[in-house]
Every structure is written in structure tokens, then in C-alpha cells.
């Protein structure tokens, strides 16, 4: 079962596509959002959730105070589930704060590369949770397309298999650290203030 962990829609159960996606475990999501809250990276954030699946990461951010969330999911069944989950989260948030407008959540039912080609930033927080079989070159191209769309203080979280190599970071994005959770590895990165310099190596836990 996948659910919203905390915030205005906390404990809400989310629908999950029957196949083709790999939901982020509660343990990993709790680790992600504990770190983001410690950085004060959620309030009024503009969030981009690439390879959204059920939309759990982006919608968790919406529940915890993000102001604008885009869920990018190419598979039509999964994109429809994103819509249903987004509607359920919006209703839960409105019940908790009836006089507030709540976050804006949009679904982009298209490929990540197509979305990034025409996207308008800046984004404050980006989740990238591609299928583990996504080629490293394709991931590198998408990171390169993302770099100019980031706010100078943005946070980028890439979820990969622990057996996958470190992503190839483009000019404009530099790794901060990696964290391992069993078969899952999280790579944390941020905009590079000196994009012409070689990317600094990430620091393992």
C-alpha cells in the first residue's frame, strides 16, 4: 500500500499502477522528506516529479506545503492514476484548510524528454525516479535538459538501483551526496555555481 505519509493529506491511500512502475518505499520517502524539511525545501516550492508513476513523491511534497507540482508520466494508465491521486490529495488538503487555495497540481502525460524540451522553470525541487533499465546516456541527456530549468538553490533527487553507476552530471548540476537503502540509492544534487568547472565527486554515506 502506498500512502501520503505526512502533511495536510497525511495517511491518504494512493492508487498505484498495476504494472510498469516501481513505487518508492515508505522508508525511502520518509528519508527523502525528512531531509527536505530539514533544508526548508518544501514550503511554497515549485516541484517537478519526473517518471511520476503514481505521483507519490510530488503529491507528498504538495501535502507538505509545495505550491506548484508537475507530475510527468508517459504511460496513459499511470497518468490517469496520477490524476485520480492528485484530485484525492487536493480534496484532503481543502478539508484541512478550507479557506486556503491549496497547491496547484498538473499532470503532463508525455515523455520526460518531450516535457523538458518545452518546460518553463525555475523549479525548486526535482524528483527523478526513472525505470532502472533506463540507459545512462538517456538519463544524462535529461539531466542536461533539466539544468537550465533549476532555481539557483534547487534540490535534485535521483533514485536509482544500488547496482547502477553514478549519473553523469552535466554542466550546471553537481552532486552533493549519495545515500543507500538496500537495493535503492538516492543521489542528491544541486545547481553548480561554476558550471565550467569539473563536477565534484559525490560523497557516499
The poorly predicted ranges are 194-201
What's the architecture in CATH terms?
3-Layer(aba) Sandwich
Number of separate strands? 9
Distance between the termini: 29 Å
Q: Which structural class fits the helix and strand makeup?
A: alpha/beta
Q: What integer value in Å does the Rg equal? A: 16 Å
Give the overall average pLDDT: 91
Please name the fourth-level CATH homologous superfamily: Vaccinia Virus protein VP39
H/E series: EEHEHEHEHEHEEE
Strand-residue proportion: 25-35%
Largest sheet: 7 strands, mixed
Number of helices: 5
CATH topology: Rossmann fold
- Numbering strands along the chain, what is their spatial order in the largest sheet? 5-4-3-6-7-9-8
CATH class: Alpha Beta
Helix content: 25-40%
What can you tell me about this protein's structure?
Its EC number is 2.1.1.171. InterPro entries: DNA_methylase_N6_adenine_CS, RNA_MeTrfase_RsmD, SAM-dependent_MTases_sf. Residues 182-205 are annotated as: Disordered. This is 16S rRNA (Guanine(966)-N(2))-methyltransferase RsmD. It comes from Agromyces agglutinans. Strand 3, helix 2 (56-63) and strand 4 (68-72) form a beta-alpha-beta unit. Strands 5-4-3-6-7-9-8 form a 7-stranded mixed sheet. The chain has a two-stranded antiparallel ribbon with strand order 1-2. The protein is of the alpha/beta class and 205 residues long. It has 5 helices and 9 strands; from the N terminus they run ββαβαβαβαβαβββ. The chain has a single domain, classed as 3-Layer(aba) Sandwich (Rossmann fold), CATH 3.40.50.150. It has helices at residues 26-38, 56-63, 76-96, 112-118, 136-146, and strands spanning 2-3, 13-14, 46-50, 68-72, 104-108, 123-128, 150-161, 173-181, 184-191.
Amino acid at each position: 500500500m502506498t500512502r501520503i505519509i505526512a502533511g495536510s493529506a497525511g495517511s491518504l491511500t494512493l492508487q498505484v499502477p498495476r504494472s510498469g512502475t516501481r513505487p518508492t518505499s515508505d522508508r525511502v520517502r520518509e528519508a527523502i522528506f525528512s531531509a527536505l524539511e530539514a533544508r526548508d525545501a518544501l514550503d511554497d516550492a515549485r516541484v517537478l516529479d519526473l517518471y511520476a508513476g503514481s505521483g507519490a513523491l510530488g503529491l507528498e511534497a504538495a501535502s507538505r506545503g509545495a505550491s506548484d507540482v508537475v507530475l510527468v508520466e508517459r504511460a496513459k494508465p499511470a497518468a490517469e492514476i496520477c490524476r485520480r491521486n492528485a484530485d484525492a490529495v487536493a480534496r484532503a488538503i481543502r478539508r484541512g484548510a478550507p479557506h486556503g487555495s491549496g497547491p496547484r497540481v498538473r499532470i503532463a502525460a508525455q515523455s520526460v524528454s518531450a516535457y523538458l524540451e518545452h518546460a518553463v522553470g525555475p523549479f525548486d525541487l526535482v524528483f527523478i525516479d526513472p525505470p532502472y533499465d533506463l540507459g545512462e546516456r538517456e538519463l544524462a541527456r535529461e539531466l542536461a535538459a533539466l539544468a537550465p530549468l533549476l532555481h539557483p538553490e534547487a534540490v535534485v533527487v535521483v533514485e536509482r538501483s544500488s547496482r547502477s553507476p553514478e549519473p553523469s552530471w552535466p554542466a550546471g548540476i553537481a552532486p552533493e551526496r549519495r545515500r543507500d537503502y538496500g537495493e535503492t540509492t538516492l543521489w542528491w544534487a544541486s545547481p553548480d555555481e561554476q558550471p565550467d568547472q569539473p563536477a565534484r565527486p559525490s560523497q557516499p554515506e
